[in-house]
Amino acid sequence: MNNTDSPERGGKSSQDNTEEKDSAAVKAFDHSKTTKKPRPPKPSNAVTIAVSSRTLFNMVNERKVFEEDGLESYVAFQLEHEDQPLTPGVSFPFVKEEPRIDILINNAGVYQCPYTKSEDGFEMQFAVNHLGHFLLTNLLLDVLKRSAPSRIIVVSSKLYKHGEINFDDLNSEQHYDKAFAYARSKLANLLFTLELSQRLENTGVTVNALTPGIVRTNLGRHVHIPLLVKPLFNLASLAFFKSPEEGAQTSVYLACSDDVDGSQGKCFANCSEEHLLAKATDQEVAKKLWDISEVMVGITN
């Protein structure tokens, strides 16, 4: 398991601010996917940002960004979703350390990797992109409810349109197509959002999804691009892909904007509500996926 036992903390603690109530934002965020983070205006009240990183190197880089932005309180965790066992009580040990969480952004991801399995034996894209977020969110639900009004944001992809939920082969053992597996995991994100929204009625906690578009990150590190084509691809990405800052705008919008107060179970793109295909709004499939996901990660009610 590639994670540390204790988080790296920096800056002023919440106890140092006696006049304003602290809030905590937790991002299940794959930092290897961005080179520079969006920098929204500094909030007027004290905020603690908690971020997970794959490596200690990324944690150090994030610390520099936070300090440059003048962020007074932050928590950085080393957490490799690909190697983390999906087991309540073992996964995400930091969840017990935060007394208040106002915003949870589920944004960790892996894209079109070769067929591999997680430590628990699940197909990697389904494990990282869906099951990891499913478990983390469920582990944080109690504190999110105590912190209400609070928000959950799930980052999906327009590629969900090419995915299908095959309950007979969620582990892709019969057939593995890396593009289809990614699309399926992104469809699972939307179905998870749909079912969770039903379960959060009258709790003060909202959940919404988003599709960020094509962003210039190394999420596609598993995609082979011929050496001779790479210069042209890089030029095209500069011209047509979003920058990390642009790609993060809808996440920031859903986390911070008053425009989405009370919005529940919807999907957004470019800071506007997005129409979804019927496959992403099928409540029966969403409920079945939830039930199976509970069994896969070992959640019992």
UniProtKB/TrEMBL annotation:
<dbReference type="InterPro" id="IPR002347">
    <property type="entry name" value="SDR_fam"/>
</dbReference>
<dbReference type="GO" id="GO:0000166">
    <property type="term" value="F:nucleotide binding"/>
</dbReference>
<dbReference type="InterPro" id="IPR036291">
    <property type="entry name" value="NAD(P)-bd_dom_sf"/>
</dbReference>
<dbReference type="GO" id="GO:0000287">
    <property type="term" value="F:magnesium ion binding"/>
</dbReference>
<dbReference type="GO" id="GO:0009117">
    <property type="term" value="P:nucleotide metabolic process"/>
</dbReference>
<feature type="compositionally biased region" description="Basic and acidic residues">
    <location>
        <begin position="1"/>
        <end position="11"/>
    </location>
</feature>
<comment type="similarity">
    <text>Belongs to the short-chain dehydrogenases/reductases (SDR) family.</text>
</comment>
<feature type="region of interest" description="Disordered">
    <location>
        <begin position="1"/>
        <end position="46"/>
    </location>
</feature>
<dbReference type="GO" id="GO:0005737">
    <property type="term" value="C:cytoplasm"/>
</dbReference>
<dbReference type="Pfam" id="PF00106">
    <property type="entry name" value="adh_short"/>
</dbReference>
<dbReference type="GO" id="GO:0016491">
    <property type="term" value="F:oxidoreductase activity"/>
</dbReference>
<keyword id="KW-0560">Oxidoreductase</keyword>
<dbReference type="GO" id="GO:0008253">
    <property type="term" value="F:5'-nucleotidase activity"/>
</dbReference>
<protein>
    <recommendedName>
        <fullName>Retinol dehydrogenase 14</fullName>
    </recommendedName>
</protein>
<feature type="compositionally biased region" description="Basic and acidic residues">
    <location>
        <begin position="18"/>
        <end position="33"/>
    </location>
</feature>
